[in-house]
Amino acid sequence: MPKSPQTVSIEAEGLGKSFGDLTAVEEVSFTVKPGEVVGFIGPNGAGKSTTLRMLTGFLRPSTGKARIGGHDVLRKPGAARRQFGYLPETGPLYGEMTVIEFLHFVAGARGMDRLALDGDLNRVRKICHLEKVWHQTIETLSKGYRQRVGLAQAILHDPSCLILDEPTDGLDPNQKQEVRDLVTEMGSEKAILLSTHVLEELEAVCDRVILLHKGSVLLDESIGAMRKRHPLFGSVKVRVAESDAERAPAVFKKLEPFVSKIDRQGEDFLLYSRDKRNVSEAVLAVIKDSGLDLREVAPVIPRLEDVFQELTRPTSNFTEEDE
Ligand SMILES: Nc1ncnc2c1ncn2[C@@H]1O[C@H](COP(=O)(O)OP(=O)(O)OP(=O)(O)O)[C@@H](O)[C@H]1O
After folding, report:
1. Per the confidence metrics, is the pTM higher than 0.90?
2. Ligand 1 proximity of 46 Cβ (cutoff 6 Å)
3. Which of 38, 55, 180, 290 has its CA 20 to 30 A from that of 198?
4. Whose CA is nearest to atom 5 of ligand 1?
5. Range 232-254 burial, b when 16+ CB lie within 10 A, else e
């Protein structure tokens, strides 16, 4: 049956997993739709890999369901597996096989159409840039190439959904960029869920982020919304001429409707946005009116790392903000 790209998505519904007394994952629900690349993040031990393994049917959940393209991964494993590709944290690569032998083996195990296989192999060889190592044994490959072989097996059957567990782990910056470009390219059509520890990766490839903490979903929102949780979102740094530094605080008082707090260090001022709207325009207008000798003005770009750290600290002060 032809697959319908409009409907093939990744779904977790109330997923939970306990190992003995340890609840590793609890009530995790989310959806990844076609054309979405979603980052799956969380501190070590948050339950990311456990969730991904349940989504792919490699681990039986204690509670809840995982569906790929509407197929329950445990009840309809064949139908579900045709719709997704999975790059596990530690790929099951067979060292003694060459790349092409391994991909033939994978195709056989998946029962792929032999007549169309040459076309599929050519496609992944090109996409994953495997031409140079095609006939090389996997045990002799660099980490970067092994990761590309892992990706090649994940996309060999051209699945509509991809589940990637730390796809850029251990790669050098150039290789990381290549994998990110690949994910972005594939993400225009496929539903992609990608776990990562590298938050800059979120910026580069993801539309949305799901933050898992202690086995539960702490947030599921756009990158912009996550950044907006930072207390400095919308704030502005200003430097005035030394000769004007003393009269600047009185001028900035006029900004009270927009600015909730001002930190000063010499001629440098940090003006905190009151409601997380960008206060740059208001600041510039007030400075212009006052004739203050402005030397520098720059909006604060809050780091996602700060938001992540703050949210996953034992006592977090960050609050949810309206879009
Ligand atoms: N097979 C298992 N048996 C017992 N405990 C397990 C098993 N698999 C995972 N765990 C535990 O479940 C919790 C979640 O682990 P998991 O590997 O899913 O976290 P993670 O978010 O992927 O971590 P990391 O970022 O370090 O990869 C951890 O406390 C881990 O020790």
Report:
1. no
2. yes
3. 55
4. 19
5. bbbbbbbbbeeebbeebeebbee
